[in-house]
Amino acid sequence: MPDYDYIIAGAGAAGLSLAYHLMLSPLRERRILIIDKDDDDQLNRNWGFWTNQPTLFDRVVHHTWRQIDFVSTSFQRRYGLGDYEYKLMHGANFYNYAVSQLQACPNITFVRGVVQSVEDAEDTARVTVGENAHTGGIVFDSVVRFGGLKQQIAGHPWLRMHFKGWEIKTPTIAFDPRAARLFDFRTPQDGLMRFFYVMPYSECHAFVEYTVFSENVLKQHEYEAAIGAYLTKVLGIQEYDIVSEENGAVPLTDYPFQRRLGQHVMSIGAKGGRVKCSTGYSFLRIQRDSAAIVRSLLQAGHPFDVPADPAFNKWCDSLMLRLMRKEGQAIAPVFAALFRHNPIDRIFRFLDECSSPVETAALIASLPPRRFISPLLSVLSNRQARA
Prior knowledge:
The chain is of the alpha/beta class. Helix content is 33%, strand content 30%. A hairpin with a 2-residue loop joins strand 14 (193-202) and strand 15.
C-alpha cells in the first residue's frame, strides 16, 4: 500500500492550485503529500490574468481593473473590459494563503526538500527527496530543470520570457489607477520583443515591469537601465522610491509535453505544457487544468482524462513563437494591428482558446499577413520533418 494517495512534487502555482482544488472536492479525505522547497522566485512573482468568472483565489487578489490601455509608437487606446476584469495577485499572498489553508487539513502533509527523482512502478510511484523516499498512488510532477528541459525540447523553438519589475511610489501624481497598461511598446526593441506593464494601485503607487522575449536573459543593470529610462523619458517621472522588486524567467516552447509520464505519474504546470507559449500566461490555465484533473479522478478513477489543447490554437502559438524568435522587432506592429482592429473581448476569448470560428477568422484577418510567411513555412517544414 502506498504511503499516500497523491503526491504533489513541487509547491509552486500548479502544485498548490491542484492541492487546493483537491481539498475543496469530494477527494478531500485522501492522503496527500506536498513536497515544497525554499523558492523565493515563487514569493517574489506577481500573477496577472484576465477573467469573466470568479476564481478560487479571488480573496488574495491584490488589485483589479475594469479598463486596460494598449500603447505603441503608432497606436494607443483605452478599452473598457465589459464582463472581464484584469487582476493582479502577489505570489507571496497566493503562496501564504494556499499553504495556510492546506496545512489546516489533517490528511495533507508538507515535506520540505528538493525532489531528486520520480520513478514509476507497477502499483505505485516513488518520489525521492534527499535521503528519503515516499510512495504514492498518483504522483503529480511539476518539477522543471532548465538544463534537462533544453535537451528534452531539442529541435523545437524556444525562448525565455524574462522580466524585472519595480513597485514604486512617487511624491506627486504620476498614474491613472482606473486602467492597467497591459502593453506599452515605447521602449527600444533592438531586434527583440520588449514591452512594459504598468499596474497602478493609486495615483502615486504602481508596479512597473519590463518584459523581454529572447533566448538569453539580460544582466541586472540592463533591466534597471531600461526601467529607469522608461520612467523618466516616457512617463516623465523624475522622483520615485522603489518599494519592492520582482525578477523571473519563464521558458516558452511549442514542444508537445506529455501529460502521462507513467502508469502513476502525471505532469502538471510548465512541465505539463500549461504555459501558453505565445504569451507566457499560465495562472488561469493552471486553474482550469486543476479542475479537469479533479473531474477525471472523480469520474474515471485516474487523472489522465483531461481535455487536449485545441490543435488550431497550438498551431497559432507555434507560429507566433517562431515570429518572436526570428523577428522579435516585428511583434509591436502585429500587436498594434491586433488591438486596433478587434474588440478586447474577442482578443481575450482567442487567447483563452474559447473563441468561435467566426471570431477567430476575423481576428486572424486583422493581422498583417506578410509578417507570418516565414514562420508559417517554418511550422510546415517542421511538421513534415516529424511526419
